[in-house]
Design goal:
Chain lengths: 138, 138, 138
């Protein structure tokens, strides 16, 4: 049994979903863990991590539209230090996830056929998002 | 310390919540981990895993009605390849959880008095849902 | 590699967010795990655990208002055994998280600059909330 720490960055160019399944798989392979778990944890409160359908871009557009409507930027927020997309970003983060934990077997992420792992960016500006990875297994 | 992989299936018959706490406890007991964590991860993007109140069926019916109203099938979705329940299923998944991690002590899941673990099915048709289990501990 | 179990309690005084980042850091330090993961799991279905912005109290007030409006207590719920805040509490829990998993490096929680870990209480009455902690690492 061992524990490995690593990290990756996702560069975002505005609101939307950015897949990093391949990057995550490469890092897991590098650490040579055959059986275990990898946890991806994003160190921010205005973006999320999410497992989502990765074959149909239309599904991700619908997801993004849904969150735009459920948590509108035109809301009446007390906290708007960084503009109208500031508070909605925190709420959309709270409604989704800060980390995902994925099983590893035979050195491979055990994602389903249609699953990919995404950074869900909730801010309008470009950002470099930092994701901590922890792999535990043998 | 050891890591154990296993899996279970939940057969669903339409939208709703399906408890699998007892099956999960049996598998944890089989692997003889006394202290640690079990992660249940569902390999699909149109159903969820959720810890929920397991004593009152009315609470689960209210939960299901809330999601039916919050993410209506009669929405104006771009992605509807598999019918009107296709895109709402992905959104309801995003709003809940793809995995749950539960502590184990003395070989028992450390669920609270009213907690059960459920497969939350968002599709109308019957499905066999695949859940990967990873148990880490000693 | 080792696994450590511990627990902490959060005493709540009505609906709102209660930070316990410092208490969690102290317990992680006590167990002398340098590299690994800590999972905080709440044994209840009417409150949540959530990573959230911890610098601006206004951001937390906006978050709480959003959930009050999205899941109103004045809803038409079948399950209301414990009053009008009973069923909304379960739904708000389902929309947020029962556990959070945070990486540990150099013995420190790897939280981002603006991240804190909170108990999100959804009930009006005061409660003592029980959180199970599991630390895995070396």
């Amino acid at each position: 049994m061992k524990v490995c720490s690593d990290r990756l960055q996702v560069r975002t160019r505005g609101k939307g979903t950015y897949e990093f399944s391949d990057e995550l798989q490469s890092i897991v392979a590098k650490h040579q863990v055959r059986t275990g778990l990898v946890t991806a944890f994003v160190r921010h409160t205005s973006c999320s991590i999410l497992l989502m359908e990765n074959a149909a871009p239309a599904a991700r557009r619908d997801l993004e539209r849904f969150f735009d409507q459920l948590v509108p930027e035109a809301g009446n927020y007390e906290h708007d230090d960084e503009g109208p997309d500031d508070m909605p970003a925190h709420i959309r983060m709270a409604l989704t996830r800060t980390s995902e934990t994925i099983p590893v077997a035979d050195g491979e992420l055990q994602l389903g056929t249609w699953q990919g792992i995404f950074l869900f960016e909730h801010r309008r500006a470009s950002h470099t998002r930092h994701i901590e990875l922890t792999i535990i297994g043998e």
